[in-house]
Amino acid sequence: MQVKLYNPPSPLETRVISKRFGTPDSWRVDTYLATGGFEAFKKVHEMSQDQIIDEVKASSLRGRGGAGFPTGMKWGFVPRQSELPKYIVVNADESEPGTCKDRLLMEHDPIQMIEGILIAAKAVGASKGWIYIRGEYRYLIDHMDSVLKECYARNLLGKNILGTGFDFELYTQTGAGAYECGEESALLESLEGKRGVPRIRPPFPAVSGAFQAPTVLNNVETFSAVPEIIRNGAKWYADLGTPRNGGTRLVCLAGHVERPGVYEVPLGMNMLYFLNEIGGGMLGGRKLKAIIPGGSSCPILSAEECDLAMDYDTMAKAGTMLGSGGMMVMDETTDMVKVALRIMRFYNHESCGWCIPCREGTTWLRKMLARIVDGNGSARDIDLVGDLASAMLGRTFCPLGDAAALPTISVVKKFRPEFEAYVAKNPFATSELVQVA
Amino acid sequence: MSNPVNLTINGTAVQAPAGMLLIDAAKLAGIEIPAFCYYEGMSLQAACRMCLVEIEKAPKLMAACVVPVAEGMVVKTESEPVVKARKTTLEFLLTNHPLDCPVCDKGGECELQDMVFRYGAGESRFTEVKHHVPEKQWSPVVFYDGPRCILCYRCVRVCNEGMGVGALGIVNRGVVSEIAPSHGDHLECDECGACIDICPVGALTSGAYRYKTRPWEMEHTGTICTHCSNGCKTTLGVRNGEIVRGNNRDRSGINGEFLCVKGRYAFDFNHHPERLQSPMMRVDGKLEEVSWSKALQTIAAKFKAIRDGSGRVGVIGSARMTNEEAFLLQKFARTVFGTNNIDHQRSGDVVTLLDALSGKTGTLGSTADCYNSQAVLVLGTDLSQQHPFLANQVRANFRHHKASVYAVTAGPVREDKIAKASLRAAGDGLAELESLKTKLQAEKELLVLFGDSVKGESVRKLVAFGESLGIPVKYIALVDYVNSRGVMDMGLLPDLGPGYHAAEGPAGMTLPQMLVADDLDMLWIAGADVKVDHPDAFVVVQDLFLTGAAQKADVVLPAASAYEKNGTVTNVCGEVQRLKKAAETVGAKSDLAIIGLIARGMGVDLGKVDADAVFAEIQKTVRGYNVPLPVIVTGGAAQTQPVNGRVPANVLPELIQSARDTLFTTGSLTRYSKVLNEVREAPGGLYR
């Protein structure tokens, strides 16, 4: 596969998992082995399962798919004894709007992820795994299949890997175009060939996952970080970031910026610093209006709120999320009402339809926002949008409902004047004909 | 209660067994937590979000249908956030649900109506355009209206888990999700209608019932389905004397909510235009309508003459008669005519089974055993086709208790899917059964259901095989129709009287013998469509329709159907239940009334001839029928205890022949049921 440089790297990056990006044949076995590859794998063979898990816990690595759950803790939930075999599943469904990092990891440094998978397998006692790749990444599935083929040929997968006596079978599995299948239990349902609808939890995948067996399910980037953690030590990794928010992450900078692209930065870097120094500042020097920090499921930050550290805890305290790292920057020319509509259209389209609040709520909200954008909104609609979104919050079967509600509530709250402006343009906005009860 | 858990709901202390779901625990305390998708006996979903309640220390509202009770749990089901959540969930549901109530069959018994009335907002704030798709017809019986569907998936689950058919699924995603039938645009299934009954709204409606009535215009009568021998309770909805629907939503009877297509829909034979409504007599070689008095006078006079002249008499009864009718008919034949020429079409070798089980106790299976027995053997019968309720019990047994199911049958059967072992066997299958001996011996107990391919000596061999296993074994001899077992218990047999006593005097003619006898003076046929070729005999036929036998009769009497009379019937497992008159066909009389009128015309005293009086006599005189009357009268099923001893009869195997009905056939009534004919002719025909 022809490698295209993803974007010019920035000297201000801290390249831990992206250090091989852009080097010739970065995805080939020889390149990987020549640059420290599989040192970690050999190291964990001298460690006990508890030691491996403790090391990952100490690194304070947290799930890079969006939820930010401590990875070591998740691995620790897998029962030691199990009648059923244990599995590793990689969430390569990458469908969160704004996110485009996992594809780069799989394109440029897939064997790093594979080594991470093997270390996880060793830690919990798994011998089989699947990489669930979203159906839209058609090209990537073929690419991953050829990477796997080479790994098998070079004894990095299969029986008796590198003579350690450890066996592991790894396969790719394609999705079929559903955002909801990025939700871990819906992903497992899809993996098993069923409708991509989430499961009742508890039990969680660590206890009852793929085919009801204990499963470690993590994001591509999360697995990719593991080899360096083992190679250089948990403390080294943790210290790169901030307390309880260790290491680095790939941030996908998009929107009205001079240098959009994917950059690897330590957790805790200031958002504005990142935007200006690495991202090159606002496109054409225009004014910043709002940032969606980590994928469209995150509440939006207005310009005044963007001076904060990019780590899980700080962002949560600020009422938003670090999320999946999909940072979308909007300048003063952006129509925030249309942003709200665009986001709601996505969630309505992707709603799996299982539960009433999300299925009907996102539909109602989409229709209402479309009507407002069309110029037929009324004053009570603005409050109703916030009201309905709040009615969905915390009531749905899975977090997709919350993901649809939270950004909408934040956009209406922080940019209400723009909604009022749309309504003001409607000559019938306060007419009796439009008001219903 | 083992391991009781103490929790508080709305300030009241509640005790519930450990592991119970919160929604069920609340019900114990008399607190209703509304739900659409939660349904007892089916897999959990937590999809509708109606059952969200407030639990102390939980970060958000929790769905009560998936939370097990925990010690010290404090639950609020009527607090402000909960009430608000329910209201908005219903408001969300009504955004696309059309306001079809005026034209929707479900109006008046709709769960969404009930919920909105109780928990919903009076007005909706929705002013957008609704998404509409046209209504579809998936089969002669099943209609699906997408906009009305609330996507609770009860229908999908009942078809998949409950009926084991899996003909319904879900297609598309999000708000354009729809329930879809197995064949894209139509259903090929059992047409049982379980999906229609379980639908909380009017999304799935019955083609047989459409637009006929409102629920409150019907009178509901619970009676026993007249088709197969399983004895399901069916609650018939009657409007202005016409039966318009059947279901069992009140879960009365032994069958809970289960009914097959026959129990639900095949009542329509009852008001078929060809129902006989007037007696007929042969005048100059042609049958002419006559009055009841004329017909009865003629019969009484002729019968008297034959009795006084010691003529040869043949009496043929039907497996669809009530116990009272069968009892009285054989009593009439034996005491008035002094004959044992009494028989009916037998479909299962109950007699040999009882004889072979002589001296053993607890060896006869009940319908509950089909659900509870740790192991079940289906031998020589297509259970799902001929005994849908028993098959349902076995399936539920497998699903809930992981019972071991074995199938030894002539062809593939549905039980193969859940069977631990299944074999194909021609004949009685006993040779093939030997190969399963080791597996069966390892079971804790066994219930054997066998069809008519096991009869005569084979039954004895089967019981011997059961003995050799060294585990407790129970048996059910499968028979065809609603009272096939009952009429045998009542002695409608040439060599046995009621209760399987030996008949007095020499054994009489069997059915085949009567049909070829050319020296009969009289042939009295009650409800059996047999081949009549007796030009010299006085033939009386009482039936619902002008059957082949009736066309050859000298006198034809219009009989009432099972849905038009009172009495009792005994199902295949010996459980006796009460029939309750639901409708009436003008001009027809029940077999019991006819027998009584003929007796009166002859000046014969048969005692009081009404269902209750005759049943009282049966209770007193028929061995095994001293069952508690209150159980029967209140609509329950009472287990009869037939003879436990040698039965003095030798059954010739050729006398036992099952009609081998399917889900879409029911003996001679089949052609008169519009619904059954429609489903048989629908694409796909009988779903196997």
List keywords for this structure.
heterodimer, A: 437 residues, alpha/beta, Rossmann fold, Ubiquitin-like (UB roll), de novo design (two linked rop proteins), five-stranded mixed beta sheet, four-stranded parallel beta sheet, 17 helices, globular, disordered C terminus, B: 688 residues, Alpha-Beta Plaits, 4 domains
Outline the structure in words:
With 437 residues, chain A is of the alpha/beta class. Chain A is built from 17 helices and nine strands. Chain A has helices at residues 29-34, 39-44, 49-58, 71-76, 102-108, 110-124, 138-153, 184-191, 220-232, 234-240, 271-278, 312-317, 336-350, 356-373, 379-392, 400-414, 416-424; strands spanning 86-92, 126-133, 169-174, 215-219, 248-255, 261-266, 288-292, 301-302, 326-331. A five-stranded mixed sheet of chain A has the order 6-5-9-7-8, covered by helices on one side. Chain A has a four-stranded parallel sheet with strand order 3-2-1-4, sandwiched between helices. The model of chain A is unreliable at 433-437 (pLDDT under 50). With 688 residues, chain B is α/β, with parallel strands linked by helices. Chain B is built from 22 helices and 28 strands. In chain B, α2 packs across α3 (111-119), α7 packs across α19 (591-602) and α8 packs parallel to α19. Chain B is globular, with a radius of gyration of 28 Å. Chains A and B meet through α13, α14 and α15 of A and α2 of B.
In short:
Helix content of chain A is 41%, strand content 12%. With 437 residues, chain A is of the alpha/beta class.
Using the CA coordinates, give the radius of gyration of chain B: 28 Å
Helicity level of chain A: 40-55%
Structural class computed from helices and strand pairing of chain A: alpha/beta
Shape by Cα distribution of chain A: globular
Largest interface: A-B, 32 and 35 residues
Domain module tally of chain A: 3
The main sheet of chain A orders its strands as 6-5-9-7-8
Strand content of chain A: 5-15%
Describe the oligomeric state of these chains in a short phrase.
heterodimer
The number of strands of chain A is 9
Broad shape of chain B: globular
CATH fold-level topology of the largest domain in chain A: Rossmann fold
Gross CATH architecture of the largest domain in chain A: 3-Layer(aba) Sandwich
